[in-house]
Amino acid sequence: MGAKKYISYFLNPLLNPLQSLRTHKVLQVNPTVISDRKEPELTKLSVFNYDTKEMRFQEFDSVNDSFSFIDPAAITWINVDGLKKIDVENICSKYGIHNLIVEDILSMGQRAKTDEINGLLFSLMNMLYFNEKDSSVEVEQISIVLGKNFVLSFQEDATRDVFTPLREKLKLNNSKVRQNGADFLYYSLIDLIVDNYFVVMEGLGEKIEELEETIVRNANTRSLAKINMLRKEMIILKRSVSPVRELVNGILRSESELIEERTEKYFKDVHDHILQANDLAENYRDMMMNLNDLYLSNVNLKMNEVMKVMAVVTCLLAPATVIGGIFGMNFETIPLLHNKWGFFISVGLMLCIPLVMLRLFKKRGWF
Asked: What are φ and ψ of residue 242, in 5° steps?
């Protein structure tokens, strides 16, 4: 950031360097650039082995330690928190995952997609969170791999995700997750991510409603800054939500043996949800455009009110200016010049004529 840009922040306090960085982050998306991801110090693995009768769960700090816990006869869900390249490559090597998928898992800023390579289904999408404090949409990329009797999920942030309800269901013997195969677990992960999109959009919707009320009551330059800020968040939301429709379509069209026929109807339900999320995102984007128009209309209305008041004041002062100009001319013979009531008559005209004009203006509804 150059010196001129810093100076502009001091000259105009409404300019926010954090918003400038946010714009840079929103616009700079180039999947061909090698990611500069900072590797975590530690990778945490959560391993679930389950079937209809039993469920075993354990957490590991080492990938190699987790391999002895995995039960080939049961359905296994391995959730990797913290993407350390060596650990990701080790676990992918064990399950025969192609190098292209490994590169996508370790990449940043990828578009949501589904691939089928070497008999494995791979889905990459974004988990979204809404930051109430900053009114911002936070993005975490997640990769999910479906194989025969196993599901692998790779997350960037080890402190949060949206899978808590699924973990609770895995503890119940009669839950649908326990009664179905790995493809249902794969569906459940995607479904929870999509459902959380609505939670994020609900948070954005509340901020948009608050901003609309603020603009109606008192539109100012800070309102315009908030509109631009929410526009950027809508770009991030739309960029994350829109491609998921193609992701689910890709799963439905894949005809993979890993997806059982009885599970397809659940993916169709996810497809309906993502269509609704897309429509809602479009509605929010239209609302932001309407807010911008509303702001401009309010600003123009205020300007018109100011101009109207100035015009009325100018008209009211015009008679006094004319009368004062007439009696101020340098002629020897001027009516009422030597009359003792001349001054009072002229001042009276200066007051009475504007009052008559003011009554006429009000009668015509000009103010």
From this structure: -55, -45
Number of neighbours of residue 342 by Cβ within 10 angstroms: 14
Looking at the structure, do residues 15 and 106 belong to the same domain, yes or no?
Answer: no
Query: pLDDT tens across 307-354, in order?
Result: 888 888 888 888 888 878 877 777 677 777 777 777 787 888 888 888
- Shared domain check, 162 and 16: no
Residue 22: which pLDDT band, with cuts at 50, 70 and 90?
low
CA 130 to chain centre: 8
Domain count across the chain = 3
Q: Which run of H or E residues covers position 251?
A: helix 244-253
Q: What confidence score (pLDDT) does residue 357 get?
A: 82
State whether 334 and 285 are in the same domain: no
The residues, any chain, with a CB within 8 Å of residue 300's CB and separated by 6 or more, are none
Residue 353 structural domain:
306-363
CA 327 to chain CA centroid, Å, is 68
Task: Compute the distance between CA of residue 269 and CA of residue 151 in angstroms, rounded to an integer.
Answer: 20
Give me 173's structure tokens.
Answer: 């013997």
Compute the distance between CA of residue 218 and CA of residue 210 in angstroms, rounded to an integer: 12
> pLDDT tens-digit profile of 208-220?
888 888 888 887 7
Q: Are residues 236 and 107 in the same domain?
A: yes
Q: Are residues 44 and 133 in the same domain?
A: yes
**354: CATH:** 1.20.58.340
CA distance 102 to 114: 14
